[in-house]
Amino acid sequence: MATVSTISNNNRSKLVLAICGFLSAGLYCYWLNQSTEYAQATLFDLWLVGFAGALISFGCWYYFHQSYKNTNVDLFNKEHLFCVLLFALLFRLIGFFVFPILEDDFYRFLWDGRLLVEEGSPYGIPPSSFFADANLSDKFSDILGSINHPDVSTIYGPVLQWLFAVAYLVAPGELWPLKVIILFADIGVIALLLFILKLRNAPFYHIILYAWSPLIIKEFIVSVHPDVIGVLLLLLGIILSFRGLAYWSAVVLALAVSAKIFAFIVVPLLLGFAVKRWLVFIAVCVLVSIPLGVKAAWVPDGLVVMATHWFFNAPLYSLLTLDIFMPLLSFNEIKVLLLSIFSCIWFYFFFIKSLNENSLTIRGDYLFLFFFLCLPAFNAWYLVWLLPFAVIWPTRWAWVASFSIFLSYASGINLAVANIDLYEQLPLFFVLQYLLIVLSMVLDIFRDKKKLL
Prior knowledge:
globular, mainly alpha
């Protein structure tokens, strides 16, 4: 029979969840009101909901964490989990109807879907080559005119291209089919994270961090970035590997890499030196790209241009390109240096993994963090690759990064500031973004040996 104290704690927990959930839902309704068409929402709108929503979700998580930490009793029961998931679904349904905020990448997704269906492949064909096409419908003329960097062909992997094509076949030029795909993929990530938490016998309340994260809602559900497809497949591949389904794991991991090349960072840690698994992996990668052209799909012209010229929100590059270093290292030499450093870090992780066959011990949070820091471009949605791992191993720095990364949007394209390029960031917000992350890392290292929030 439940004690009075247990009933009281249970009711208090429900009240905390209800208050936090409805407050967050109100914030997303604000987005819904402020963003009904292109370029309507402002940087203030993004920050208001992003920062306040993060504060609410962290506060809710912290309530259960403190209860568990102080009593060693998990107050987060099935009723609480149902409540969290119900609110998470509500947030996503609201976000589904929000027009993408401070983003225009989705125009490229809509255009790529048309190219694949109508032209046979989107690779190697820059959108600008269709500027004089008189056969385009008014809808696709508007889409074409809204694509950023129209002289650069697509950078997205073959699995994503097939999904873009499916969305085109369902409703040409409409965003909602892509949103449906992204929504189900995101729900799938939540389900897989709950499964992993159960396998590791970890508290289920950690799912609040991901399920209620404003960054996840904004970048996936609102702005339709398709990285969640790769994240979903990567997590599934890890679980299949843990369950001993090695060849199925290789198939799914190949699909993950075919969605976004970032997933390959984890693949060798799972496949190891198993030649047959690698053959399955390579075969699937080739099969999904054959109709698009294997070389074009895996070394797209647009990706080469991006790797060569893109520079955005990269702290190490910004540091090494200061005047005191520039006489010593060219931009390309900085790339080689940082990628060499990351290679050494990666081999360290590979060595550690070789000592432990448990696939669920891969610290993808640190691995992806080091990788992104060594890239010349670090977009906000890249961070979502490491956040699922930060549900399994909650750390201050990862979840502080999940809201401080919103500061990266303080760039010329989103601000009416004179004498600043479109993708140039305001130094104050750039420094503050990473200062918050560094300070939270210091707390993780020196204040809490368990590295929990």
